[in-house]
Amino acid sequence: MQRNSNSYTFTFALIVCVVCSLLLSLVSEGLKSKKDLNVVLDIQKNILKAVNLREPLNAKASAQVVKKTYSEKIKEMVIDGNGEVVEGKLPADLKEDDKLYPLYVYRENDQVLAYCFPVNGKGLWSTLYGYFALEPDAKTVRGITFYKHGETPGLGAEIEKDWFLNNFKGKNIWDEETRKLVPTAVVKGKVSDVVSKDKQQYYVDGISGATMTSKGVTALIDQWLNVYEAFFKKIRK
User: How far apart are CA 185 and CA 187, in angstroms?
Assistant: First the structure.
């Protein structure tokens, strides 16, 4: 086969493509387990952050420390649509079409300090994924995190910043007078400027220039609090 012939060029290019594809496949497969481990680790970090540990993890905590803290302080559970605990099931066992829901319970010395569950919903450009935690009274917000989204940097992406997340801590999701759920909502602007003082406990400040993302956060909190309400109703009783 002549080196300057079309068939030689085609064959050479084909061999290079096959070899490169094979190498990429091998590298991808080799890194898959590490990638999966990092995903699990990131989820555990966010759950630990949402439940607001008494002794927060260092931002640079090693994987071993994160896993150890998680295994010691978080109990994984699964509940059904009626708020009943499903024995023998763990969050990792659930499939997309299951009508079952994961729940994470933060304990210290056998005392329940928080209940945490995943939340997700549409923002402006992407689906927002995070975790929402309540105090043991099932009425007060303990924390919230967002670990995955594609919102605009400097605008909607502010939902993952501490200044925004800290606004939720201590807010109420339950009205004692009406005995009804009042999911925490994000307002446009500052709560102190647009909400009467007696209702401010149910709202948090919005993000300037990110109205649609803020509405998305409000909607997903409303949606998932209602999903888990059957369980929390039992806790309040």
Answer: 6
